Amino acid sequence: MLHRPKALFAMRAEHLATLFPAPAMARLLSIADIDVSLVAERFDDPRLAQVLPGVEVLITGWGCPPLDETVLAAAPRLRATLHAGGSVKGLISPACWDRGLLVSSAADANAVPVAEYTVGAVLLAGKGVFTLREDYRRRRWFPLGEVHPSVGNHGRRVGVVGASRIGRRVIDLLAPHDLELCLYDPYTRVEGVEQVGLEDLLRSCDIVSLHAPATDETRHMLDRRRLALMPDGAVLINTARGSLVDTDALVAELRTGRLSAVLDVTDPEPLPSGSALYDLPNAFLTPHIAGSQGNELARMGAAVLDELERLAAGSPLAHQVSHDDLDRVA
Ligand SMILES: NC(=O)c1ccc[n+]([C@@H]2O[C@H](COP(=O)([O-])OP(=O)(O)OC[C@H]3O[C@@H](n4cnc5c(N)ncnc54)[C@H](O)[C@@H]3O)[C@@H](O)[C@H]2O)c1
């Protein structure tokens, strides 16, 4: 199809060098016709007036403004957007679908570090590490008597909510361990994994990991009543979106000491400075870092270059986003 497509970067400029380190930039220049010193942070940038009319492919990243009708009108030859990030929901407007724009995202590449973070959290939580660490710090002494017999990952039951690309990867990475896995997803099955209802999952699992997208349907899917179904000592891991959990209800459960939580995402984000989640010893809080950070951005950049190569060769994209799926995906 396209031969050496004319491309343009559109993102916050600070991410460019991390997404595309020097060897990746050299590879990009061998595939596309692109001015690597030009990064569109706003589409009304006067430097774009000569460039946008000829652009065929946008290489977008975090901070790219939405591709609305005005942008599309200024870029009549635009055929594809390759997004070096996860979700395209804030980027792709209805006008893009009307135009028939090809849209691809690096969400698969971004799923890798989220799944790695989750697997680390599951295994450490199962071992009781978060609790025992706090205990050691408080007592300045080894646990008095035996560590509780429920500590350990031998046969522990772990529930995955959402057979998303991250959820499926978590299942694959946990498979070699001596765990019992189950899954709740009303739309997607995973071969060989026990599929259960959400409430059965919550009642029966010691560790629950959330991997569903933020939609109207998933808002507060873990509310006060459902959190109360989780057994004493259970751990909730949320690397998905804060809106899936009723924050006040979770704080109330954590205050009793009955449950623990590993939270990479919260609602709101960031939390207000007075939030109890900063100080509760049974809340392990990280600042939304499970997705690509640091050198992990280069994996998303490489995924975009693979897509660009496919596009230039006239091959189908491997990570095309379909308009029809958008209601049920991240
Ligand atoms: N913490 C981070 O840095 C980070 C990074 C990337 C993604 N995320 C989040 O991780 C989550 C998963 O992302 P992804 O790209 O793997 O998702 P995805 O788009 O691949 O998958 C969506 C899946 O969720 C399922 N689903 C939809 N509604 C559901 C419901 N009501 N209950 C259970 N499952 C439901 C769908 O069937 C589908 O299998 C999203 O919430 C995303 O925003 C977080």
Entry summary:
The protein has 330 residues and is α/β, with parallel strands linked by helices. The protein has eleven helices and twelve strands.
Architecture overview:
This protein has two domains: 7-105 and 294-327, Rossmann fold, CATH 3.40.50; 110-285, Rossmann fold. With 330 residues, it is an alpha/beta fold. It has eleven helices and twelve strands. The strands form two sheets. It has a seven-stranded parallel beta sheet with strand order 8-7-6-9-10-11-12, sandwiched between helices. The model has no long low-confidence stretch (mean pLDDT 96). The protein has helices at 16-19, 22-31, 69-74, 94-99, 107-126, 129-139, 165-174, 198-204, 224-227, 247-256, 297-313; strands at 7-10, 39-40, 57-60, 80-83, 102-105, 157-161, 180-184, 194-195, 207-210, 235-238, 260-263, 283-285. Helix 5 (107-126) packs across helix 7 (165-174). Helix content is 32%, strand content 14%. The chain binds nicotinamide-adenine-dinucleotide. Nicotinamide-adenine-dinucleotide (NAD) binds next to helix 5 and helix 7.
